[in-house]
Design brief:
Bound molecules: 1-O-phosphono-alpha-D-glucopyranose
Number of domains: 2
Shape: globular
Number of helices: 11
Helix content: 25-40%
CATH class of the largest domain: Alpha Beta
Number of strands: 13
Mean pLDDT: 94
Strand content: 15-25%
Low-confidence stretches: none
Structural class: alpha/beta
CATH superfamily of the largest domain: Spore Coat Polysaccharide Biosynthesis Protein SpsA, Chain A
CATH architecture of the largest domain: Alpha-Beta Complex
């Protein structure tokens, strides 16, 4: 059966961002700058590069700045045009040209599974991608396009996996997988949300990219509260992994590229420094300064 082409990306962004208080008291954590662009812009750009130009952002209270960011600002554009500042003009226009961006509010920001359910009406009966804003994938390394290919080839759902040290697995969903002969992806037999290291089926962590069959919506409706009392996407995928036939089966793409975690203060700092070092406009000045700074510590 031919598969429906994937065009929709869902970005859950309703979380309260408590790890970054007080910065996130009145500002969405997704707007924290990664050098000079907010974190969410990297994620929307990644979706756009993979051909997903219909983006649904799941928002909530205090998230208005997200909508403003992806909107146009004619007065600012006119001022930059008058000054002849084409570089800055292009920079502010970039975020408003990344695709059609839609918003829906999740009144009660509890659990990734609930956030994904908020997308049901918008997504309809098509496979779709979910991108979590805490994980940034380096644009030089392909992940989403490969996951889309695997979804189209298998007709199931696809998670992104990455090897992490065993002691770190309790911060992630952990996957029980086997190789698929002749293929670069793996079959997922089981998933456990944030297990203790000794209970984890493997040190393969789910990272924040999913390409899902719409069957996940019905499963989420029937999924009870899991870890932390929240409806977990991992639990719904565990159900789909055990299901045969239409919409069943879960597969994994093991990512070995560069991923920047921005979910807590320490990893955020590391991500900003890494991105700044790699920038053509800043790196040549920033790297020697950083070396000197580190040598003096
Ligand atoms: C979510 C998922 C988890 C996954 C993680 C990736 O957890 O529930 O399975 O490993 O994202 O970042 P969160 O980090 O939102 O608590």
């Amino acid at each position: 059966m031919p598969q429906t082409r994937i065009t929709k990306a869902v970005i859950p962004a309703a979380g309260l961002g408590t790890r970054f208080l007080p910065a996130t008291k009145a500002m969405p954590k997704e707007m924290l700058p990664m050098v000079d662009a907010p974190a969410i812009q990297y994620v929307v750009a990644e979706a756009s590069r993979a051909g997903l130009n219909n983006v649904l952002v799941i928002t909530g209270r205090t998230k208005r700045a997200l909508e403003d960011h992806f909107d146009r600002v004619p007065s600012l554009e006119a001022a930059l045009e008058r000054k002849g500042d084409e570089k800055k003009l292009a920079a502010i226009q970039e975020s408003s040209n990344l695709g059609d961006i839609h918003y829906v509010r999740q009144g009660d920001p509890k659990g990734l599974g609930r956030a994904v359910l908020c997308a049901q009406r918008h997504v309809g009966d098509e496979p779709f991608a979910v991108l979590l804003g805490d994980d940034l994938i380096d644009e030089r390394d392909e992940l989403l396009a490969e996951m889309i290919r695997v979804q189209q080839a298998t007709g199931g759902s696809v998670v992104a996996l990455m090897e992490v040290p065993r002691e770190a697995i309790s911060a992630y969903g952990s996957a029980d997988v086997t190789a698929v002969e002749g293929e670069s992806f793996v079959q997922v037999h089981g998933l456990v949300e944030k297990p203790a290291p000794e209970d984890a089926p493997s040190n393969l962590a789910i990272i924040g990219r999913y390409v899902l069959h719409p069957a996940v919506f019905d499963v989420l409706h029937e999924t009870g509260p899991g870890r932390g009392g929240e409806i977990q996407l991992t639990d719904a995928l565990q159900t789909l992994a055990a299901r045969d036939g239409e919409g069943g089966g879960v597969y994994g793409v093991v990512f070995r590229g560069r991923r920047y975690d921005t979910g807590d203060k320490l990893s955020y700092l590391k991500a900003v420094v890494t991105l700044a070092c790699g920038r053509e406009d800043l790196g040549p000045q920033f790297r020697p300064w950083l070396e000197e700074f580190a040598a003096g510590l």
